[in-house]
Amino acid sequence: MTKVDRRILKTQEALKKAVIELMSEKKFDDITIQELSDRANVSRGTIYLHYLDKYDLLDKLIETHINELREMCKAAADMDFIDGSLIWTEYFDQNYTFFAMMLTSKGAPYFRNRFLDFLVEEFQDEVDITKGINEGLNKDVVVRFVASAYVGVVEYWFTNDRPFPHHVLAEQLGTLLERICN
């Protein structure tokens, strides 16, 4: 694996931070490349060296977080839902600004759909419709229900400025997943 120059990483991190900060102030569509370059203290040309446009920057930022969550899923594969949810909610808490921006009115509208699609993919192997309370139900419906509920609860947690600690969120989500998926 090739090592990325630290200056490139520093520039990319500055741009990602700048877009999140600007999104806390205005809608994404209203953010200009000039504002991004000013906030990140880089030239407009530097932005175009790394990204096609502001949408590409946002897409890469979203993809970074989705990939992190995907890796956490792999690491948590042998855990129960409560412990697995704790890993996620810690990550949500540590990246509060990003997820709050993405899941509130100033966020990018397509993030929620990307997050939902990712969860649908992850819950495919978790839902059992051969026995228990889900026996005989359509798997796609159950998976979509679980994923939508998960997104809704996480969205509620961010929209209401973390009304309880992330470990409580993890316990609640994990308990509900245990009931529905097993």
Kindly summarize this structure in a few lines:
The chain is mainly alpha-helical and 182 residues long. It contains nine helices and no strands.
How would you describe what is shown here?
Helix content is 71%, strand content 0%. The longest helix is centred in the middle third of the chain and has 22 residues, at 54-75. With 182 residues, the chain is an all-alpha fold. It is built from nine helices and no strands.
Spatial gap, N to C terminus: 40 Å
> What fraction, in percent, of the residue positions are helical?
over 70%
Low-confidence stretches: none
Number of strands: 0
Instruction: Return the string of H and E elements.
Output: HHHHHHHHH
Q: Mind describing the biggest β-sheet?
A: none
Shape: elongated
| Residue share in β-strands | under 5%
Question: What labels describe this entry?
Answer:
0% strand, mainly alpha, 9 helices, 182 residues, elongated
Write the layout of secondary structure elements.
Layout: H1 6-23, H2 33-40, H3 44-50, H4 54-75, H5 81-94, H6 96-103, H7 109-123, H8 139-159, H9 166-181
Helix pairs in contact: 1-2, 4-7, 5-9, 7-8, 8-9
